Amino acid sequence: MIALKFSRGLAALILFVLSALSLQAEFLYKDDVVKNPKFTQQIESIGTELKAKTGVSLYLVMVRDLESNESIADFEKRISLETNSSAVIMTFVELKKEVDILARPVSLYNDFNKGQVLSPNATFIGAVVSSIMFARSVDEAKELIVNRGGTILPILAERAKGAEIVSKYSAAMYNGYADVAEQIAASKGQTLGSSAGTGSQTFIDVLRVIFYGIILYALFIYARGRFFRKRETKSE
């Protein structure tokens, strides 16, 4: 009986803490995905410092899904009506695996590189591989190569199971959020002490090496398979 009461009391305390954090959260505008107090604290720390030093509010919105027939762009516009006049909104929709960034006023797009942040390619090698495999024109290939250095999609593309999936989401969105925050701060001549920093960048670089190493290895296996099949065909 005592253990049961203790478990219920602990559960109630955890629920209270989570509720309090969600009420206090300003820059993690909505989170239906991660729901981790430490993640909330990290986002709030960066967002608060960025707002204090630049006057720009950077909001992170994470939802499971959108309403029927609603696009992520329409959803962001609806959110923008609820925020102040100088804001950047980063949105992640879990079930659709969509990420987007909206800036209001549009002049704020000059303070960060949206194409780079949302690039599916983290490295030059990855961008070249993508341009060869997926580009439909020379201009599209150039765009893929120029806008490399993505800090969100390469991590989201990593395979994960169980609880690792939510951890992957939090890592991807935290790194993307920190990346945008650092770029906005730099455009205003400021630096952020609470941002991702070199430790997070090292983590991203490791993921990049692993991710594109797998791609290159797959291409090597594919090319080797085709080579041996051709040799077998000729020998027959």
Overview of this protein structure:
- By secondary structure, the protein is an alpha/beta fold.
- It has a single domain (23-228), classed as Diaminopimelate Epimerase, Chain A, domain 1 (Roll).
- Helix content is 60%, strand content 11%.
- The chain is built from nine helices and four strands.
- It has helices at residues 2-24, 37-54, 72-80, 114-117, 124-134, 138-146, 153-156, 163-187, 197-235, and strands at 28-31, 57-63, 87-93, 98-104.
- It has a four-stranded mixed beta sheet with strand order 1-2-3-4, sandwiched between helices.
- α2 links the parallel β1 and β2 (57-63).
- α5 packs antiparallel against α6 (138-146).
- The termini are far apart.
- Residues 10-23 have low confidence and may be disordered.
Order of helices and strands: HEHEHEEHHHHHH
Measured by DSSP, the beta-strand proportion falls in: 5-15%
Q: Give the oligomer, counting copies of the same chain as homo and different chains as hetero.
A: single chain
The percent of residues in helical segments reads: 55-70%
Q: Structural class, judged by helices and strands?
A: alpha/beta
List its traits.
236 residues, alpha/beta, Diaminopimelate Epimerase, Chain A, domain 1, 60% helix
Question: What's the structural blueprint in terms of helices and strands?
Answer:
Layout: H1 2-24, E1 28-31, H2 37-54, E2 57-63, H3 72-80, E3 87-93, E4 98-104, H4 114-117, H5 124-134, H6 138-146, H7 153-156, H8 163-187, H9 197-235
Parallel strand pairs: 1-2, 2-3
Antiparallel strand pairs: 3-4
Helix pairs in contact: 2-8, 5-6
